[in-house]
User: Which sequence fits this backbone?
């Protein structure tokens, strides 16, 4: 089924709630939001278990799994990703016969990953799914099975959600701050620290949304800017291999199981890339399209020598 049909299904599903939303709702795709419902109140939030990616309701705390991005897909459709896993994974409905359980899966074009936010009055919303159109996101609390689920649409308090913007503080690198691999700071994630303990490398939290040719990838990284940092670039092949060892293999953040461009050339028209599933090198033609993750050095302008593989 084509993506355009998902949007039609979503629009039809709103009829189940007795209203049609013609306009895009004004949620900032660059902000994070907490999702709570009126049944369990403000003490519990929609969350993701980082071990199995299952969606549940947990007590509100400092978990990055409780910070959600609302990613517009056009025609009012959205996807939901969380800060802990990045936009490469989104909420999906598990196709298991009952079709009411959810977990984060790789961002793709499955209808279960598409949602419509339906205003329900008094600052409340329902979440309609693009696949299970007769069901809505439901967040009840069961001490034996605290998993959020899809349930048939009804006048049920646990299906009415508040969407609250969360101020995520920027925590810059300072000389007195202890740095660790996987720490989120300065617009990205630390994946290498040299022997000084204060110099290293940061990768962007997310891939660029589209695969690119080598030239497009180079330009996109140079144009990238976030949290006042605009010195991003394509990683070298050695840097990609360190990123694979320190972040990908330890699952400290999400990467696609695909080829990623490096900045290094093999010959006039072929450039090195790295498979972030197995860590293998391969030279691709410059016009091929591969995934892209920008990196930068900290502090800005520092020389950081990454050990060769």
Assistant:
């Amino acid at each position: 089924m084509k993506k355009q049909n998902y949007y039609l299904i979503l629009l039809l599903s709103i009829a189940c709630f007795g209203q049609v939303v013609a306009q895009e709702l004004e949620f900032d795709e660059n902000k994070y939001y907490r999702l709570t419902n009126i049944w369990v109140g403000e003490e519990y939030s929609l969350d993701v278990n980082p071990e199995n990616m299952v969606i549940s309701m947990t007590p509100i705390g400092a978990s990055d799994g409780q910070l959600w991005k609302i990613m517009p897909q056009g025609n009012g459709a959205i996807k939901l990703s969380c800060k802990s896993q990045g936009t490469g994974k989104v909420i999906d409905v598990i196709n298991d016969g009952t079709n009411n359980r959810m977990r984060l899966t790789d961002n793709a074009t499955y209808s279960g990953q598409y949602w419509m936010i339906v205003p329900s009055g008094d600052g409340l919303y329902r979440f309609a799914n693009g696949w299970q159109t007769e069901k809505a996101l439901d967040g009840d609390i069961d001490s034996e099975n605290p998993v959020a689920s899809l349930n048939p649409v009804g006048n049920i308090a646990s299906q009415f959600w508040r969407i609250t913007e969360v101020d995520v503080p920027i925590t810059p690198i300072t000389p007195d701050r202890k740095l660790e691999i996987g720490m989120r700071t300065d617009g990205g994630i630390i994946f290498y620290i040299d022997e000084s303990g204060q110099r290293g490398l940061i990768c962007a939290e997310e891939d660029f949304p589209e695969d690119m040719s080598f030239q497009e990838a180079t330009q996109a990284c140079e144009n990238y800017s976030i949290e006042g940092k605009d010195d991003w670039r394509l990683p070298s092949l050695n840097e990609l291999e360190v990123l694979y060892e320190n972040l990908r293999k330890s699952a400290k953040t999400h990467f696609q199981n695909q080829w990623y461009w490096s900045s290094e050339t093999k010959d006039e028209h072929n450039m090195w890339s790295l498979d972030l599933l197995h860590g293998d090198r391969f030279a691709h033609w410059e016009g091929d399209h591969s995934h892209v993750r920008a990196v930068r050095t900290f502090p800005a302008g520092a020389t950081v020598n990454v050990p060769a593989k």
